[in-house]
Amino acid sequence: MSNLNKILKLGNPELYEVSESLTKDELPAALTKVSEMHNLIIEYRKTYGAGRAIAAPQIGYKKRLIALYIDRPLILINPVLFNQSFEMMDLWDDCMSFPNLLVKVRRHRKCRLRFLDRNWEEQVWDLKDDFSELIQHENDHLDGILATQRAIDDKSFALASALKTEA
User: Fold this and answer.
1) Is the dihedral of CA 75, 132, 95, 165 positive or negative?
2) CATH classification code of 4-166
3) 38 falls in which pLDDT band (50, 70, 90)?
4) What are the backbone angles phi and psi of residue 50, rounded to the nearest 5°?
5) CA distance linking residue 65 with residue 62, whole number of Å
6) Which residue blocks in 71-116 are alpha helix, DSSP H?
């Protein structure tokens, strides 16, 4: 039985709400959610062939928390983006909240990220290209913003299958 139905889908008003910062006292409960989020990333990847991260509000948990699973599971607590580059890039963005729909967006090519790790220690990462885009996408979820709201224009939407056929 699939757990992917736990991911809120496009049109759900909860996706447009701004998340609150996580406090250190809330960390033990949040780690349970993080485990669920990592499992959802793995299941989504098996089902759709994509999926590297998910933001807590996508499962209805309104905290500033992002789960990543690229080569290993990681969490970003209370992330803050800064020093975004002036150089931008256009790309087709996908999202677990709207499987099979792609949205052409414009993102900063580089940025820096400050966050707390699971040990409540501050980390700072320099991000570029696709990793920069990924974190900008997930951070938007924490602010109640979806990629659909960042579409370059009204023709910036496509079904994933339509773009694969063109390739």
Assistant:
1) negative
2) 3.90.45.10
3) very high
4) -150, 170
5) 8
6) none
Query: What whole-number distance in Å separates Cα of residue 141 and Cα of residue 83?
Result: 19
- Can you read off the two tokens belonging to residue 27? 């960390």
Distance between CA atoms of 79 and 63, rounded to whole angstroms?
A: 11
To which residue do tokens 């992330």 refer?
A: 79
Closest CA to 134 of 48, 78, 83, 69: 69
Residue positions annotated with a catalytic role: 138
d(CA 158, CA 11): 17
Q: List the strands of the sheet with 53-55, edge to edge.
A: 53-55, 65-69, 73-82, 110-116, 122-128
Residue 108 has pLDDT above 90, yes or no: yes
Q: Where do we find the tokens 């983006």?
A: 81
As given in the structure block, the two tokens for residue 97 are 């909240």
Residue 150 near residue 105, CB atoms below 8 Å? yes
Tell the burial category of 149 from Cβ atoms under 10 Å away from its Cβ (0-12, 13-18, 19+): exposed
